[in-house]
Design goal:
The structure is a homotrimer. With about 350 residues, the first copy, chain A, is of the alpha/beta class. In chain A, the strands form 6 sheets. Chain A has an 11-stranded mixed β-sheet, covered by helices on one side. In chain A, strands 8-11-14-17-20-25-28-31-34-37 form a 10-stranded parallel β-sheet, with no helix packed on it. A 9-stranded parallel β-sheet of chain A has the order 9-12-15-18-23-26-29-32-35, with no helix packed on it. At the A-B interface, helix 3 and helix 4 of A face strand 21, strand 22 and helix 4 of B.
Amino acid sequence: MPDSRFFSRRGPFALSELAVLAEAELDAAANAARVIRDVAPLGSAGPDDIAFLDNTKYVSEFLESAAGACIASPAYCDRAPAGMNLVLSATPYRAYGLIAAAFYPPERAPEGRAPAAQIDPSAVLGDDVAIGPGAVVGAAASIGARSVVGPNVVVGPGVVIGDDCRIIGSATLSYCLIGDRVTIHPGVRIGQDGFGFAADSAGFLSIPQLGRVIINDDVDIGANTVIDRGTSSDTVIGAGTRIDNLVHIAHNVAVGRGCALAGQVGVAGSTTIGDQVMIGGQAGINGHLMIGDGARIAAKSGVISDVPAGTSEGGYPSRPVRDWHRQTIRLDQLARTRGAKDD
Amino acid sequence: MPDSRFFSRRGPFALSELAVLAEAELDAAANAARVIRDVAPLGSAGPDDIAFLDNTKYVSEFLESAAGACIASPAYCDRAPAGMNLVLSATPYRAYGLIAAAFYPPERAPEGRAPAAQIDPSAVLGDDVAIGPGAVVGAAASIGARSVVGPNVVVGPGVVIGDDCRIIGSATLSYCLIGDRVTIHPGVRIGQDGFGFAADSAGFLSIPQLGRVIINDDVDIGANTVIDRGTSSDTVIGAGTRIDNLVHIAHNVAVGRGCALAGQVGVAGSTTIGDQVMIGGQAGINGHLMIGDGARIAAKSGVISDVPAGTSEGGYPSRPVRDWHRQTIRLDQLARTRGAKDD
Amino acid sequence: MPDSRFFSRRGPFALSELAVLAEAELDAAANAARVIRDVAPLGSAGPDDIAFLDNTKYVSEFLESAAGACIASPAYCDRAPAGMNLVLSATPYRAYGLIAAAFYPPERAPEGRAPAAQIDPSAVLGDDVAIGPGAVVGAAASIGARSVVGPNVVVGPGVVIGDDCRIIGSATLSYCLIGDRVTIHPGVRIGQDGFGFAADSAGFLSIPQLGRVIINDDVDIGANTVIDRGTSSDTVIGAGTRIDNLVHIAHNVAVGRGCALAGQVGVAGSTTIGDQVMIGGQAGINGHLMIGDGARIAAKSGVISDVPAGTSEGGYPSRPVRDWHRQTIRLDQLARTRGAKDD
């Protein structure tokens, strides 16, 4: 059961209600009136809990689970252990998320405007904006309705934040325009100067960075991630894109809609990433490249050339995943077969 | 000599006292009453200083050092230059650490509770807790005796911090339980939402993250490292584990006791790492894996399969270190021997 | 045109004035009296704007640009489209930087000393120092003339900051001496304990870290980068060096003058890096190495041996770039030619 020091539970709900919330179907054998009081993982769920099965690694836990209900693919409708009521969904994890959000709706914190916040008199705050202690809101900044600015966040002069955003804590926003329903996790840095300089024999000369960062609606940015502003055009993150922790997005990068960038990814300057692109952890993308829509880049890859839409690449320098895997196999064979002679 | 603007020296100590503190033996030829006033590196130490030799790279500096005393392995007891008194230890660096801590005990800063700190009235603070300016302590948070919460740290609602902890500055703690004697360096982010979402054709749906982060006793977490809370179970860091800077620990990860994770390591979600595991810098561990007790992962490795206890792996995909090295050698041979023909 | 919410434009300037500022020459066909009102990229510039051409990727944009003026290499002096006046420079990007700084000089923010800043009475502040809200300046710290300490920055006890520095926001400085004209971006952590411990069977013993961090003049440090202080000697960053975002510099590292370290680079403890060394993104340098002056390390490389001055390396383990590229080619050939038989 989630720790009540941190999470406030709603409910209970009848199983039939949960199926509706989850946009799912009750199994024919399920008891629609069954009362469910909480969500729980398969391994610890009891008769009052609903769990989910979304990864075949956990089928054995499913088969032994004491959960009163479980969300699963219709393929499992004959395999539920005794006492388990099934909620059937082609997307069990998504269905679980909808149900879990009914039990544990997102909380707003802080409430109101902390006396210790420093809000410039020229800043414009929408209805029901909450500002935490130690937050600093600069001149002419604008924060939309119901947005929450957490403790010790710095919102620079002129920054625009849309409605229903969560800027959770200790983040720094400058030279940026942020859409609606954006979540920014602690320690995120948006809008500072990028790595922009001209080199000559006398050293480096900083180039004024005159662009902005545009964060579109429904973006989620992980803790301690850094997004630099553009040099003359803007750095842009497309709607619905998810960025994990400790990611580096350099100046002038454009990331499309619905992308997912995993932890510690780095994208060098002026690269354009299409829509629905998936990039695995610790991958690096060189500058001035085009990554096509729907491309998938494996974790730890190093991309130094354009990637066509819809393709998957891995390795360094990255290449189609099939070629990368073949290289791995060949190298392994080479190491083994010639080992006796040369070692 | 350490800069007195930053470090306050205690002492002096007789060499015999230092040997006791260091759990070491005086060399038979050493002058037990010799007064030592400071620690210093071999290269700059003078007659009043004690140095140490722990790496054979520095033997030549040892042989020419003017240090009045030196901690070294018994193997060097005949090799000290004239005027150097030896303190013999099988673990010279550890012995040095104990002596250095006698001269320079850890300082507490800040002292007291800064007027500019924002402490919720429902928070429970133990004896002699220090809270720095700009720190924010949320509702029902609990901070144990003698713990220090540095400037601009944010301690979220309900967070529990044990005794004798140092939360040094500008860190953000939420949804977490922290043991005793834990050190958290600046900019650490603990407990925020992980990269948890369900994907479908309409985009990404955030899944409520209902677990916590559990940091056990004597853990040390480096600057700007990020540890996400669990999805339904907890993210756990075992007692005595050391985590370096800019490390990414995703949701539901369990790290065992006495591990060392070097800078910029990334561990993806739901992976379990055993006890006494060593992971080199910039290595990445895929999600849902088991890394056995005592395993060693080389720097920059990419681990995509379980690693058996007690083994060492390197490369990407990682494999036993011997195989990885053989691959490196073979590839090098291949590049050289066929170079003339194909270039 | 740069967003006036964030940028205040000066000017206009005659083309002849701009050529002087840019240390460049007017093309013989250019109209020296032409009035220029702004900088803009080639693609969006109009008749009142000056653009630049520095990368052959953008020649086609140059040939179709409506810019009233453009900075370019003398090689393009016959190729300007009708209506474009050329400013000729062997270093067009540098010349652009000088002109852009005339239109958009760096702004100082915040001004004055915010009432919400916590400045220890024993701190020494030079003329015209600005301290933002929520900033904390410790005992006996010293901040030089005209330096700006941004919101929520923590300057630890005894820290020395030179003249004309910009500590932009939410950074944490401790145990360090900072030169003149240094820029520190948000979330930078300087001077905390490094990953310094002795291991034995009982676990890890922290070693007192008694050195400092020395940041020399004209250094620029990117957002969320971490630089640990030395163990007994100092961690040093040489004059004019540029460090990008999310870089990890471990204790006792010495980085020379005029280096550029790209995003997410990691340098392990006690390594010495010479002058004018360039290190690509996500590269890792092992500890206790010497990287010679002028060396170049490719992105994502893993360096485990000393690198001679003036050489270029890549790969992991890194080797001369030519050998690394040959390995890549050979491995690719191997995968292709033997694919049919073994798959």
